[in-house]
């Protein structure tokens, strides 16, 4: 007599889903406006120089960070090397004061422990990455247009001596700026092409770029 076959009962355990951490955006990436790839690069550079989190870290609340404990801690003496690995080399001061690196270390280690944790390091890297991103041409064009129309009161231009005189009056500088000085401003901006010609939008943008207001 053949043995009885027991019916196969479906498993009560839910199927295990594999999480794709590769495309998962972490909380720190969201908080710092980073892509998953950018945060992955930062984490990799941090790990190159990090050391294990000390077991007695709870005694030092400035270093206690359960969220990123597995990432270890980074000596402040290695911060510059980690930034260089990310092509985020901090600028230095010609006077020998440390420049940007000194400010970064003061942010990462305000109490002078000699170490920092992953969270603050990632935030600093995010700021540097974003500062290096080129300004959107379309966005800058809109800013130039808006600034130009502040001078022309919404008109298409060009900017004339009367426009500059109005600005001086609004800034309470009317008595300190003569008409001759205003005419000289027009001539300097338009390359000496005549006071009556005024200053066009492209010339205005060029002046603002030289002044550092807009990126050329």
Could you characterize what this model shows?
Helix content is 45%, strand content 3%. The protein has 9 helices and 2 strands; from the N terminus they run ααβααβααααα. A two-stranded antiparallel sheet has the order 1-2. Helix 2 packs across helix 3 and helix 2 (36-49) crosses helix 5. It is elongated. It starts with 26 loop residues before the first helix and ends in a 6-residue tail after the last helix. Residues 6-22 and 57-65 have low confidence and may be disordered.
List keywords for this structure.
216 residues, mainly alpha, two-stranded antiparallel ribbon, 3% strand
The count of strands amounts to 2
Mean pLDDT, nearest integer?
78
| Binned strand content | under 5%
Q: What's the story with the biggest beta sheet? A: 2 strands, antiparallel
What fraction, in percent, of the residue positions are helical? Answer: 40-55%
User: DSSP helix count?
Assistant: 9
- Order of helical and strand elements: HHEHHEHHHHH
- Structural class, judged by helices and strands? mainly alpha
Give the overall shape, derived from the CA principal axes. Answer: elongated
List unreliable stretches of 5+ residues. Answer: 6-22, 57-65
Structural Rg: 30 Å
Please give the oligomerization state of what you see: single chain
List the helices and strands and how they pair.
Blueprint: H1 27-31, H2 36-49, E1 73-75, H3 79-85, H4 99-108, E2 115-117, H5 118-132, H6 137-152, H7 161-170, H8 179-189, H9 201-210
Antiparallel strand pairs: 1-2
């Amino acid at each position: 007599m053949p043995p009885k076959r027991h019916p196969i009962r479906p498993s009560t355990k839910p199927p295990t889903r594999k999480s794709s951490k590769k495309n998962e955006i972490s909380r720190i990436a969201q908080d710092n406006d980073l892509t998953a790839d950018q945060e992955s690069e930062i984490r990799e550079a941090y790990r190159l120089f990090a050391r294990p989190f000390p077991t007695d870290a709870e005694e030092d609340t400035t270093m206690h960070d359960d969220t990123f404990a597995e990432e270890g801690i980074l000596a402040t003496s290695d911060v510059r090397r980690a930034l260089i690995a990310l092509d985020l080399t901090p600028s230095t001061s010609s006077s020998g004061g440390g420049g940007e690196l000194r400010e970064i270390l003061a942010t990462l280690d305000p109490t002078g422990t000699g170490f920092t944790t992953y969270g603050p390091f990632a935030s600093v890297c995010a700021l540097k990455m974003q500062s290096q991103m080129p300004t959107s041409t379309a966005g800058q064009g809109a800013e130039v247009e808006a600034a130009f129309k502040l001078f022309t009161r919404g008109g298409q231009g060009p900017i004339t001596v009367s426009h500059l005189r109005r600005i001086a009056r609004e800034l309470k500088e009317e008595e300190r700026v003569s008409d001759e000085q205003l005419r000289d401003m027009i001539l300097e901006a338009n390359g000496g092409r005549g006071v009556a010609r005024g200053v066009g939008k492209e010339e205005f943008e060029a002046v603002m770029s030289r002044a550092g207001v807009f990126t050329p």
